[in-house]
Write a structure and sequence with these properties.
235 residues, Undecaprenyl pyrophosphate synthetase, alpha/beta, 44% helix, 9 helices, single chain
């Protein structure tokens, strides 16, 4: 059975650029083009939900300013392309785009662009792409807890009614399946604060290749491996 939802950690852009004797941050532009390819591969085989981890909340605070500005510029340019190019993969495949994370910490003009993209693609129901930017899994849990606490204080729910389903409804994107598969490129074997709540029963796969090096065969091999795994869901 195909995964309904794949989470992807796009790792290895900077190392890839260094190997090409480029500035490390230039790898993010190459990685963005690869992301379009991977979205197409996923849509072509019928995967409906993809969450791409593009920029962590920690990265915003720790990356060199020049590199961070370059990454944000790529996100800006891609958003404008989605808004202006009817042939973009998002429109071809009818993909609804949502930006998840503490996006309020990003520049105002970028927040506005993200909202435009979300509105522009809001009618698409065939596929769904969550772009995790200024994102942290632990922070998402904290934000969900705050949202629930406010509802309790307003009398909308009572504390005894809080369960997993209530918590899920207060995550950044409610009403979507939990990720069946989380795929990470770049060689590291960790989740790096990605979907900390949602990944409880996800199958994990780690690929040594850097993100821009990923091929369609690599992607399909991961899907085939997922299909033959026996999922136990804690059993």
């Amino acid at each position: 059975m195909l995964p309904r939802h794949i989470g992807i950690i796009l790792d290895g852009n900077r190392r890839f650029a260094r190997e090409l004797m480029k500035n490390p941050w230039e790898g993010h532009k190459i990685g963005l083009l690869k992301a379009r390819d991977v979205l197409r591969w996923a849509c072509n085989i019928g995967i409906r939900h993809v969450t791409a981890y593009t920029l962590s909340l920690e990265n915003i605070k720790t990356r060199p300013k020049k590199e961070l500005n370059y990454i944000l510029k790529q996100l800006e340019q891609e958003s404008k392309t989605i808004l202006n190019d009817a042939k973009h993969i998002v429109h071809q495949m009818k993909v609804r785009v949502r930006f998840i994370g503490r996006t309020n910490e990003l520049p105002e003009h970028l927040i506005s662009l993200f909202k435009e993209v979300e509105e522009r693609t809001s009618s698409y129901k065939k596929h769904f792409l969550n772009v995790a930017v200024a994102y942290g899994g632990q922070q998402e849990i904290i934000d969900a807890a705050k949202s629930i606490a406010k509802k309790v204080s307003r009398g909308e729910i009572i504390a005894d009614d809080i369960d997993e389903n209530v918590f899920i409804q207060n995550l950044y994107v409610p009403n979507q399946p939990m990720p069946d598969l989380i795929l990470r490129t770049g060689g590291d074997h960790r989740l790096s604060n990605f979907m900390a709540f949602q990944s409880a029963y996800s199958e994990l796969m780690f690929i040594d290749k850097k993100w821009p090096e990923l091929t369609e065969k690599d992607f399909m091999d991961a899907i085939h491996e997922f299909e033959v795994r026996e999922r136990r869901f804690g059993g």
